[in-house]
Amino acid sequence: MQNILLAATLIGGAGLIIGIILVVFSKIMAVPVNQAEQDIRELLPGANCGACGYTSCDGYASVLASGEESSVALCKPGGNSTVEKLANYLGTDATEITATTAVVMCQGDNSKTNKRANYQGVKTCNMANLVAGGDGVCSFGCLGYGDCFEVCQYDAITIEDGLAKIDPYKCTSCMMCIEICPKGIIELLPQHKASSLVLCHNEDPIKIANKACKVSCISCRQCVRACPEDCIEIKDNRAIIDYELCTNCGECQKVCPHDCILSLYPLVESSV
Question: Which domain holds residue 151?
Answer without folding.
Answer: 100-270
